[in-house]
Amino acid sequence: MDVTIAILVTGLTNGALYALATLGLSLVWGSMGMLNMAHGSMLALGGYMVFTVAVSLGLPVWAGFIGAAAAGAVFGGLLYLGVVRPLLKAGGPGFETSVMIATVGIAIGLENALLLVYGGRPLPQPFAVPGSVQLGAGVMPWLNAVIVIVAFVVMAVMGYLIAKTKMGRAIRATAQNRDAALLMGVPVERTYLQVLGLAGALAGICGVLLSSITQLSPTLGADPMLKAFIMCVVAGLGNLPGAVIAAFGLALIEAAVQFALGARWGFPVLLMLVIAILIWRPNGLFGRAQIRRM
Amino acid sequence: MSDTSSRLPVSAGRSALRGDLAIGVVFLVCAIAAPFVIESKYLIGQLIVGLFWAGIAVQWNLLFGYAGIFSLAQMAVFAVGGYGTAMLATYLGFNIWLAIFCGAVLATLFSMLVGLACLRLQGVYVALLTFAISSVVYLLIVTDTACFQMIGTTCRQFTGGASGFSRFGDFGMRQLLRGDWVRGNYGIVLAGFLLTLISSWVIIHSPMGLAFKALRDNQSYAIARGINRFHTQLLVFGISAFFTGLTGGLYAAHFQAIGPSVFSMSTLLFIMAIAVVGGTGTFWGPVLGTIVLMVADELMRDAGQFRTLGLGLLIAVFVVLLPRGIVGRLSDFLTTIRARRAAPQQGD
């Protein structure tokens, strides 16, 4: 019984974190067909921003959250202006891969910049919630509950932004058909900027939550990003609700495998599952076969 | 450069052959002269490393630049070649040359399995699947702790675990040339690289290479014209893997060691950066890219901590400003000049 609760607590906490990371990736993929390899380093940027705001500047922790989201959004915007827009302008069928390689370069650069500024020593995270609660035979730290709640609030806000606002409508229109949206007067460039800004803000908040259960290091985003990619793929790239479901599902499976077979097998089993899913359904579980433009 | 040959008439194809041959001879003369001119053993060692990277990049270019398959399992294939060589030499006492050959065959089989798994996938999904496969192999090797053999008081895992294999034999140059063994190894590695380079030239210019390019440029049309995607894709996975695995075996035999670090993301990125900077889909791109990046890397060695930062930004800047790489840009430039020279005669 206590094992079940432990699996649920770990799985749900990780699921919430993965869902946030996956959402940012999937949003960018869905609207512009771009796989943002710099997403992991943007998570790290968020984690370090809360450290700067709350520890170095001495401001309250909630200000750190805002700082992290803002830093992520600004970086996302810069990424669009400096890298993505010129590549989109150049056009051609190579965009998918060239943007992947370019963002990989940006990711290496950002991680190293963080390393140079903050040093390689792991830093403690100022955002922490002490205490825990007894759940039957198991224990749930309050921190995990807060992470799940914050993640759900952020997801709800994102859902509202996408579904109800004018900006969200523009994003969805651009994702469906870029040229049609452009002809209908949607400012596609500004929409792309907003998408990357939003994804950056998501990454910033996710980074804060993530570093609260681990520690701050420049590569803290690498592992969650890899898993987020996997979840995106399982759900079908660009499918936001599917991504959230896949994140929770896979996190629970990973936690269960780790408890049952040992920590060594958690990730490999996950990867093998994904390989099997991809062979069985080449466009992901919830993805539809897309017609490729020629 | 040579890439455009397929779209041009036969005479242009022949001039492309002449162009490639001329560049090849210059490259070969420089490469052969290098060990006699350069005194420093460190530099020759770096040249050997450069030849390894160039060999992997040439094969990745065949896969991505010509066949349009964005595979991230390239370093895993390389590792299978290296590990195959090391394990056959360690456990079965294979002669190093035979082990290298068998390692390359193993790499081919591995890669064809990966190719089978990728057959129904497109674009980024191929990238993610190949990445997942190589991550699984890496994780299973690194976390392997079960003892397979006891050597003295230390235990060795079947896959070598986190430390990998070492001292399973070398090219025999230490006995043959003594102090000059680095130069001997350089010769062997250079021969291996030339084999890789020439075979990729032959493949690119054969009907098979045309089929690769046709599938890359417009898959539906290529299939409608009777190109068998199944055969062609398996073939390109197999061929590029054979030479990648061969390079892996040579790498293992040169360093007399192979470990899980060859799987690292940064190595893979370096290979991709080489191909991108030089120009994907161009024959000389990977070679030129290796030279540029190795030199840049050496120059930034003085900058110490800023080296990785510089390398990352360099990749991004190249992709944004020179999307077709140096070679692609150069050939565009040459075409423009030729067109300008031809234009006045027609216009006046």
From TrEMBL, chain A:
<dbReference type="InterPro" id="IPR052157">
    <property type="entry name" value="BCAA_transport_permease"/>
</dbReference>
<keyword id="KW-1003">Cell membrane</keyword>
<comment type="similarity">
    <text>Belongs to the binding-protein-dependent transport system permease family. LivHM subfamily.</text>
</comment>
<feature type="transmembrane region" description="Helical">
    <location>
        <begin position="41"/>
        <end position="59"/>
    </location>
</feature>
<feature type="transmembrane region" description="Helical">
    <location>
        <begin position="6"/>
        <end position="29"/>
    </location>
</feature>
<feature type="transmembrane region" description="Helical">
    <location>
        <begin position="65"/>
        <end position="87"/>
    </location>
</feature>
<keyword id="KW-0029">Amino-acid transport</keyword>
<keyword id="KW-0472">Membrane</keyword>
<feature type="transmembrane region" description="Helical">
    <location>
        <begin position="265"/>
        <end position="282"/>
    </location>
</feature>
<feature type="transmembrane region" description="Helical">
    <location>
        <begin position="192"/>
        <end position="216"/>
    </location>
</feature>
<keyword id="KW-1133">Transmembrane helix</keyword>
<feature type="transmembrane region" description="Helical">
    <location>
        <begin position="99"/>
        <end position="119"/>
    </location>
</feature>
<feature type="transmembrane region" description="Helical">
    <location>
        <begin position="139"/>
        <end position="163"/>
    </location>
</feature>
<feature type="transmembrane region" description="Helical">
    <location>
        <begin position="228"/>
        <end position="253"/>
    </location>
</feature>
<dbReference type="InterPro" id="IPR001851">
    <property type="entry name" value="ABC_transp_permease"/>
</dbReference>
<keyword id="KW-0813">Transport</keyword>
<protein>
    <submittedName>
        <fullName>Branched-chain amino acid ABC transporter permease</fullName>
    </submittedName>
</protein>
<dbReference type="Pfam" id="PF02653">
    <property type="entry name" value="BPD_transp_2"/>
</dbReference>
<keyword id="KW-0812">Transmembrane</keyword>
Automatic annotation (TrEMBL), chain B:
<keyword id="KW-1133">Transmembrane helix</keyword>
<feature type="transmembrane region" description="Helical">
    <location>
        <begin position="96"/>
        <end position="116"/>
    </location>
</feature>
<keyword id="KW-0472">Membrane</keyword>
<keyword id="KW-1003">Cell membrane</keyword>
<feature type="transmembrane region" description="Helical">
    <location>
        <begin position="267"/>
        <end position="296"/>
    </location>
</feature>
<protein>
    <submittedName>
        <fullName>Branched-chain amino acid ABC transporter permease</fullName>
    </submittedName>
</protein>
<keyword id="KW-0812">Transmembrane</keyword>
<dbReference type="InterPro" id="IPR043428">
    <property type="entry name" value="LivM-like"/>
</dbReference>
<dbReference type="Pfam" id="PF02653">
    <property type="entry name" value="BPD_transp_2"/>
</dbReference>
<feature type="transmembrane region" description="Helical">
    <location>
        <begin position="69"/>
        <end position="90"/>
    </location>
</feature>
<feature type="transmembrane region" description="Helical">
    <location>
        <begin position="44"/>
        <end position="62"/>
    </location>
</feature>
<feature type="transmembrane region" description="Helical">
    <location>
        <begin position="21"/>
        <end position="38"/>
    </location>
</feature>
<feature type="transmembrane region" description="Helical">
    <location>
        <begin position="234"/>
        <end position="255"/>
    </location>
</feature>
<feature type="transmembrane region" description="Helical">
    <location>
        <begin position="308"/>
        <end position="326"/>
    </location>
</feature>
<feature type="transmembrane region" description="Helical">
    <location>
        <begin position="186"/>
        <end position="204"/>
    </location>
</feature>
<feature type="transmembrane region" description="Helical">
    <location>
        <begin position="123"/>
        <end position="141"/>
    </location>
</feature>
<dbReference type="InterPro" id="IPR001851">
    <property type="entry name" value="ABC_transp_permease"/>
</dbReference>
